[in-house]
Every structure is written in C-alpha cells, then in structure tokens.
Amino acid sequence: MPDIMEWRPFREVSRLRREMDRLWEDYFGPGRRGLRPMEMEWAPAIDVSETADQVVVMAEIPGIEVKDIDISLTGDMLTIKGEKKSEREEKKENYHLVERSYGSFSRSLKLPAAVDADKIEAKYDKGVLTIACPKKEEVKPKAIEIKTA
Asked: Which of 41, 44, 77, 122 has the most CB atoms in a 10 Å sphere around its CB?
C-alpha cells in the first residue's frame, strides 16, 4: 500500500512563489540580464561533420573581420572566439527595430576524433568560417583483408 501524504496547498503555492521571485530577480535584479542590450549575448550557429579523413566545423559569423576571429585547439577541445562590432553610431536616430546581435563570443566544442593540429586549415567566405581538421593516422579506419584457407 503506498504511503499517504498530507496535501498542503499553501506549501506548493509558497514554493511556486519562491521560484517566480528567483526568476524575476535573475531577470530584473542586480545583474539585470533582461535589461542588457542585445550586444552582450550571442553565439554563432555551428555545424560539425565527420568523414573517414577529417572533422569539419562550420560557424556562421557574418559581419566579422578575419582579424577579429581567434581559433585554438587544446587537446580535443576546439575554441572559436571573436567579436562582432556594432556599426551603430550614437546619432539622433530613432531605432524602431534592432535584431542584429553584437559583442564578443566564445564557442568551445569537443571534437569527435583525434586530429592533427599541424594540418588544420581555416577558411572564411561569405560569413561562414570553415575549419577542416584532418584526423590523425591512427584514428582513420583501416580495411582489413580476410584471407581464406
């Protein structure tokens, strides 16, 4: 027979209120995450694909100059950092809609296979950064011939 618990509706309401208070505090409190401009938080979309010979990472980062992008590899962790600078000047313009994001970003991802760091190549074309990471020889699949007797 299952244990019977006493229902205390006010305890549930109190718990819900604490959660809502925490949410409002996080959003509008001292850090004011909800009131920060859009340029504080953004990260590029990333695709990772793998073939027998390499791992390819593609990141959408339009509007960034190559000199503002930094790529590093530490072990199997690939990190892409950069900064998208705001093009807005403080004139007496009235903005009606601002959807473009600006600011610094950093994306780190664990590569699915060991790669040869000395042979990594990066290309930037039309706002897409493509990083080709050749796999180390020892992780490439090797076909094994089956001999018959």
From this structure: 44
Q: Is 33 in contact with 26 (CB distance < 8 Å)?
A: yes
Q: Where are the domains of the chain?
A: 7-36, 38-87+96-137
Half-sphere exposure of 133 (CA within 13 A, CB side): 26
With tokens 């290309």, the residue in question is 123
Mean pLDDT of 66-89: 87
Coil/strand/helix, residue 120: coil
Task: Label residue 99 exposed, middle or buried (CB < 10 Å: 0-12, 13-18, 19+).
Answer: exposed
Q: At 3, list the tokens.
A: 């244990």
Residue 47, SS3 per DSSP: strand
Judge whether residue 81 has pLDDT over 90.
yes
